[in-house]
């Protein structure tokens, strides 16, 4: 059984000035709680099978303080519904500093055999759209309150998107925005939008996002639509055997992502 040990300490310094203007510099070291995770950091559970919480051990400078752990999220794991669930374990040391670790539980449907994992290249058919604006500079919307989108801005280059299979029907996508900011603008990984997704079925391979977001911009998508996956699509040049598409709306922008999977 895989065990993961987390340990951290920090040295804090305080500067105090007395009435005679002499300076003292007392320092102290505080040790954060060490966590030892029983089981795996990512656990997979078959749909309809009970989830057994393996627990976590907590120690502070060798002393077992497992009884002080506060666990949140374990009661939210729904084994009747495929998806991704997170359990957080937190504890506070003697100096009042708290720390935590997180376990992911993926509830999967073994009947789903469609596998979209792999390293993809964004097609130049991928694009970003902004809302049209009126004469006052306000974003235009239709009668239903939806944005009226301006002319698409094609991606300037091919970017890489990695999709990892966590369990049948459960995947991790490195960037739902197709690398637009991370790679295209060169802003770095904090500006990507990684996400865990859950596929609906073999006959309907469209997926739903169950967890994710962008740490730099904050938040998650507003709407996800137009998901298609056709591994039989083969362009005339025979370079790519499959195509995966989706559209994602985020903070007043629409990203239309087209992924080509290179021949392996």
TrEMBL record:
Residues 157-261 form the BT-2262-like C-terminal domain. Residues 120-139 are annotated as: Disordered. Residues 120-134 have a biased composition (Polar residues). It holds the Pfam family Bact_surface_Ig-like. PROSITE patterns: PROKAR_LIPOPROTEIN. It comes from the Bacteria. Residues 35-107 form the Pesticidal crystal protein Cry22Aa Ig-like domain. InterPro entries: BT_2262-like_C (IPR032180), Cry22Aa_Ig-like (IPR032179), Ig-like_fold (IPR013783). This is Conserved domain protein.
